[in-house]
Amino acid sequence: MADNELPFAFGNPPLEARLRVSAEDFFVEEILGYEADGEGEHALLIVEKRGANTDWVARELAKFAGTSPMNVSYAGMKDRHAVTRQAFTVQLPGKADPDWSTFPHEDVRVLSSARHKRKIKRGALRGNRFVIVLRDVQGDREAAEQRLAAIAARGVPNYFGEQRFGLGGNNVDQARQMFGGRRVDRDKRSILLSAARSHIFNGVLAERVNQDVWDKPMDGEIWSLNGSRSWFGPEAFDETLAGRLSSGDIHPSGPLWGSGDTPAGADAGELERSVAARDQALADGLAGARMDQERRPLRLFPQDLSWRWLDDGALEMSFGLPSGAYATTVIREVSRT
Q1: Does pTM surpass 0.90?
Q2: Is 279 a catalytic residue?
Q3: Of 79, 279, 292, 312, catalytic
Q4: Separation of alpha carbons 77 and 55, rounded Å
């Protein structure tokens, strides 16, 4: 299911606008959740890049430091058509840091450096902070304000963004081909497995949005703990769980498909199995790849969501998201782009 086919939680968005008119209109800053150790063989760098690919920046940092690209790590890929601040580690055993201020690329700046004991692992960050500007806005401003207030109060469906599925969503088709016997290298295999799981998850979430139970419990619900990969259930919904759901401590969850049956029971489990059965090749392929059955929250709360109208009529939105969430899932509920 393509991004533009996924159902909206609050009805059609009240605005139409242009996104990423310039790189500065999409600002992303990583939130690591920890400080540098102050010692160790790795240089922990905070880098600001504009219009640059993360992997290219990593290779250029290696070249500048006189080391192998294998010695440069980062937590995650960041948008190219944006201004982003993210962390890199460069392993420099027994070597002094180069003068990072002389890094020879106009659109890439090393903002800070400090020594650290460990390399950054993929996904090892608390989240990201976004400042996003929508331009050439058309539509009902009052309705947009109401929609943003509803998002702040209720959250949005935690869909995987279109970036997960490659150009034109082609990664899902490639996953089917891989499960059918086409050989791919290890890195590509990981990307295709993720796309297959994400496709089934989005299908489950879409069904629950259509039934208006994406942020409400179903019989047999599995609960995700906020800010954690842990989950529990199913168990009877009671006042204690209701309070935790209302406070955002727990969220309804959907499947990251793998081997064996979904842990969800009753109505929730039946829904998940029926969606997975629509693309049996993907479900069987994930089981054959021995992927574990895991869970992802169905509900996403933007943190500290705020917005303002700029002098030229543009809409600026600012919010934080946990690692693994997509800013486009927030934007799409407000505006078509």
Answers
A1: yes
A2: no
A3: 79
A4: 7
